[in-house]
Design a protein that fits this description.
It is built from 37 helices and 9 strands. With about 750 residues, the chain is of the alpha/beta class.
Length: about 750
């Protein structure tokens, strides 16, 4: 090679290098300008710039990366993912890998996104953005402990980043550390007062800690920042419900529904609230709206089941719970409520099986032990019921429902002192516990301790079923202290018809105090009661009342007269039979050829203790001696007894018994009346007919716990179960005595 040739080559190389340098400078300038436009939000200009770079340098990793980011910002995810992936293939960087992961997440390719983040961490384990995204993905996957560890590791590098504190709080709340979550979320919103997510987590944590006022304050602040956020509005409603402000909660849910009619959370929680405030029909309708949107919403089916139970539609309730547990087989609450529905539908074995299913999942789930105990109690397995209630209390010592039911089990076992102690423990935690006070009254009265029993019995007015009959008057309640001389007193019926029949005996004693008596009672008792010589005016409930000075419910007269076992008014008969009615029924029955016995085997199916008091007619059939003429004294016959009644030969009059005046005349024509604990038993005792009463092992308080006689009804003889549920022994004894009557 000649010297001249070498000089020419050297000159060309220098020219090429200069060209490359100029080219590179040109590309860098174009890229810098595009990046500057991008950072200033001039996205169209930036896109043009990146395209210009790639036109001259198709493999420029930075241009590919940032062009992909720009496509991401425009929502063009497929293009974004492809461009950023090409940039990584050329030059992998943690930032590009993080942005690629973001695009993959938007495309639903979560596994690939996680792989990209893990690759980025291999390149730079301390990259803040990558670590933060990694933690977010772990949290979304339910790996909150791992996410929390990353957030904790990031805090020394970013102690003033509100988003980090907020995410940390969310992870803490997810693992059940509400107190720590409350602290972290507070740090977040103090750093950034308008950080809505931090305020929501703060409210959620406060709600978990039952700090409802604080939670409501934070939800309100979050809603001020974003008034249209329906999820936050619903969370506020849930908090109001948790705090017992059900009407406000319902109003909040309805506000959310007005803004978003198909919002499942608002609809479902409003349905739950409607059920809790006893608007059961509305709860069913609102649950139906949820199911119209999502027919597989287990919560709506379960809530529908709860409401239907309260409406008495037990079979339909069970069906709804069955569908709910198929959809949510691991939901302990739904399974437990299903067990309760089975219990009320008298599917006891299946109810126990369902409780055991819950306990196989979580042996420390107290509500299942409570539900199981209630089934055992219904089956007269009180020892097992007591053991179940004790397990519930071992799990949660302040479980008032378990404490109360423990008292009931002890009462059934006739461990009365222990029952009183159990009820007192409930009252110590909740001094206004209506069931505990009411049940204490039953124990005292059943033991004949009227001194303590009558005052406690006044708690009945706060009890839901009895309290419905409470009257509110401006005139004062009379309980025996004020003089009634020259005064008018309104005596009003309450509870069942039998209660009124039993306590109307006190009218004679009220009259003896110089009072004018206005008696208010239901229509079936009108003609029977208004014949009493002590009644100056009789008023049907709902009719206008005449002027009066005092009022007193009939059953409170026992307290007013300080009745004890030695002073029970027992001047029987205190009710009389109408002569015309008596003639009618004598003609209707004809001349007696055999001993006449009237029977009553069932009472009011709505009575809370009906399952213990009522005896199916089939159980009576073996004692129906043909040498006796048998009569049904009840007006209504349940469907399950109809066939047995038709086959029995028992004379039944049904609707011919217009009211208790008819029943009293029919009862008067009986040689004996045999009855379970019903209003007809009280009627027979009040008119002085020979009366045999069949009583469960734990009878109503008025029959006491021992003995064959009753101080309330001298003509009565009591046949008691020797043990819970044992009607067979009662009928064995009854059979012998019936044969003697023949």
């Amino acid at each position: 090679m000649t010297q001249q040739t070498e000089q020419a080559q050297t000159s060309q190389a220098g020219t090429d290098a200069s060209a490359r340098a100029a080219y590179s400078a040109s590309v860098e300038t174009l890229l810098r300008r595009a990046r500057d436009a991008h950072q200033r939000g001039l996205l169209d200009e930036a896109e043009t710039g990146y395209r210009a770079v790639l036109d001259v340098d198709a493999g420029n990793a930075d241009a590919l990366h940032w062009s992909g980011v720009l496509h991401f910002q425009h929502g063009r995810m497929e293009q974004a993912e492809a461009l950023i992936r090409r940039s990584i293939d050329i030059v992998p960087t943690p930032l590009a890998l993080a942005n690629h992961a973001s695009a993959l997440l938007e495309l639903g390719r979560r596994d690939e996104a996680m792989q990209r983040l893990e690759y980025a961490l291999e390149l730079n384990p301390s990259h803040v953005r990558v670590r933060f995204m990694h933690a977010e993905m772990l949290a979304e996957a339910g790996r909150h402990d791992s996410a929390l560890a990353i957030y904790d590791g990031l805090l020394p590098d970013a102690p003033a980043v509100a988003e980090l504190w907020s995410r940390r709080a969310a992870a803490q709340l997810a693992i059940g550390d509400a107190a720590a979550a409350l602290e972290s979320s507070e740090r977040a919103w103090r750093l950034e007062p308008t950080h809505r997510a931090a305020l929501v987590v703060h409210a959620d944590a406060a709600r978990a800690l039952r700090q409802y006022d604080l939670a409501l304050t934070s939800y309100a602040r979050a809603l001020h920042l974003e008034p249209s956020n329906i999820d936050v509005l619903v969370a506020r409603g849930v908090t109001l419900a948790d705090a017992g402000h059900f009407e406000q909660a319902l109003a909040t849910f309805n506000e959310a529904i007005a803004a978003s009619p198909d919002h499942i959370g608002a609809l479902h929680n409003s349905a739950v609230t409607l059920e809790r405030i006893s608007r059961f029909t509305d709860a069913v309708a609102r649950s139906d709206r949820v199911l119209a949107i999502d027919e597989k919403h287990a919560g709506a089916l379960a809530n529908r089941g709860n409401a239907l139970l309260h409406l008495g539609q037990k079979a339909a309730a069970v069906e709804n719970f069955e569908r709910a547990v198929q959809l949510a087989p691991a939901s302990l609450e739904t399974l437990t409520n299903y067990a309760r529905a089975l219990h009320l539908h008298k599917q006891f074995a299946k109810a126990i099986e369902t409780c055991d299913q819950v306990l196989s999942i979580d042996a420390e789930y107290g509500p299942a032990w409570l539900a199981k105990g209630l089934v055992h109690q219904h089956e007269h397995r009180s020892d097992e019921a007591l053991a179940s209630f004790d397990r519930a209390l071992a799990i949660r010592a302040d479980d008032l429902a378990a404490s109360f039911q423990r008292g009931n089990a002890l009462r059934t076992l006739r461990r009365h002192a222990e029952a009183i102690e159990a009820f007192d423990r409930v009252i110590a935690q909740d001094p206004d516990s209506i069931p505990a006070h009411f049940s204490k009254a039953f124990v005292y009265l059943a033991l004949g301790d009227y001194t303590r029993g009558w005052p406690e019995y006044e708690w009945r007015w706060k009890e839901s079923q009895v309290g419905d009959s409470r009257r509110q008057f401006p005139q004062p309640l009379w309980l025996g202290k004020e003089s009634l001389e020259g005064k008018t007193i309104l005596l009003h019926a309450e509870q069942g018809l039998g209660d009124s029949i039993q306590f109307v005996r006190y009218l004679e004693h009220v009259k003896a105090l110089g009072a004018t008596i206005v008696l208010e009672a239901p229509k079936p008792l009108r003609r029977l009661f208004e014949r009493m010589p002590y009644v100056d005016a009789y008023v049907l409930r709902g009719e206008p009342l005449p002027p009066f000075d005092y009022h007193c419910p009939l059953l409170s007269l026992a307290l007013a007269f300080r009745t004890d076992e030695t002073s029970i008014p027992a001047n029987v008969p205190y009710l009389t039979v109408d002569a015309q009615k008596l003639d009618h029924w004598r003609n209707r029955l004809g001349t007696a050829q055999r001993t006449r016995v009237g029977i009553v085997w069932s009472g009011n199916p709505q009575h809370l203790d009906d399952h213990n008091r009522t005896v199916p007619l089939a159980s009576w059939l073996p004692i129906l001696d043909d040498r006796i003429e048998w009569f049904s004294l009840q007006k209504v016959v349940r469907d399950e007894d109809q066939a047995d009644l038709k086959a029995s030969g028992i004379r039944h009059f049904g609707d011919e018994l217009e009211d208790f005046d008819d029943t009293a005349a029919l009862v008067h024509e009986m040689d004996y009346v045999i009855s379970v604990d019903t209003s007809v038993a009280h009627l027979a005792g009040a008119v002085g007919r020979p009366l045999w009463i069949l009583l469960p092992h734990l009878p109503d308080w008025r029959w006491l716990l021992e003995g064959e006689t009753s101080a309330w009804y001298p003509s009565a003889r009591l046949f008691r179960q020797p043990k819970p549920g044992d009607w067979q022994s009662v009928f064995d004894r009854l059979s012998k005595d019936v044969a003697a009557l023949a």
